[in-house]
Design brief:
Elements: E1 7-17, E2 20-27, E3 37-43, H1 50-60, E4 70-77, E5 89-97, E6 108-112, H2 123-140, H3 154-165, H4 171-180, E7 185-192, E8 200-205
Parallel strand pairs: 1-5
Antiparallel strand pairs: 1-2, 1-3, 2-3, 2-6, 4-5, 7-8
Length: 226
């Protein structure tokens, strides 16, 4: 007889909040792992596919209904001992968005990734994989702009890269790279003085998906996930 193994969806939802890369988590109030932080998740329904399950968990369990969150499948986790109660397969999704509001669910909260050192089940491993995926994708895709509001300055975008990568970037070199990348940024024709000083040009995210040329981070300067 073929065993029936439950399949769940777990979400690594990341945003830049209060100048820190933060993840949406909740503190478990029952065994196993009572008192530990956990990712939002849930079992898939028989009548839904994986992307639909991820969107439902984002709305119902994570408490972000209607939020403009970029969701993509991260990977599948299926080693036998990941849940002490039963054998469970988990399909993890990575969600990225600009500064998101507080969750509508009282038990959910935003926590800096650097503070999440012990988590329930294998959620720490899943979160680390999600953070590293986000860091990698900033090198060769336009995903960095997904952390920004609809209109932003180059300095706003640079702060995203600095927070996600965990290191300081040279403003002039960064400006040259992002403005020369084909289709990455589109000028709005407007400027802002909200940061003081000279007016800064406002941009919006362009149509490019991949960056040409890419913006690799130095291996020697790659920060740890924690």
């Amino acid at each position: 007889m073929v065993p029936r193994i439950p399949v769940s969806v777990d979400l690594v939802v990341l945003t830049v909040r209060c100048q820190a890369l933060s993840a949406l988590v909740w503190r478990r109030d029952r065994p196993p792992y009572e008192g530990h932080w956990a990712l939002s998740g849930g079992f898939i329904h028989l009548d839904e596919d994986l992307p639909a399950a991820a969107a439902r968990v984002l709305a119902e369990r994570a408490g972000l209904p209607g939020a403009a969150v970029h969701l993509e499948q991260l990977r599948t986790y299926g080693y036998p001992d990941r849940d002490p109660r039963q054998r469970v397969l988990s399909v993890a999704y990575l969600g990225l968005a600009p500064d998101l509001p507080a969750s509508t669910e009282a038990h959910m909260s935003w926590q800096p990734v650097s503070s999440l050192r012990e988590m329930a089940f294998d959620h720490r491993r899943i979160m680390v994989d999600g953070v590293e995926r986000a860091r990698d994708k900033l090198e060769y895709t336009s995903l960095g702009a997904a952390f920004c509001p609809p209109e932003f300055t180059v300095a706003d975008l640079r702060r995203v890269y600095e927070i996600v990568w965990g290191r300081t970037l040279d403003p002039r070199n960064f400006h040259r790279k992002v403005t020369s990348a084909e289709g990455f940024l589109v000028p709005t024709g407007r400027a802002t003085t909200r940061d003081g000083g000279r007016p800064a040009k406002l941009y919006r995210r362009g149509p490019a998906v991949l960056l040409h040329p890419p913006m690799p981070r130095s291996p020697k300067e790659t920060p740890p996930a924690d």
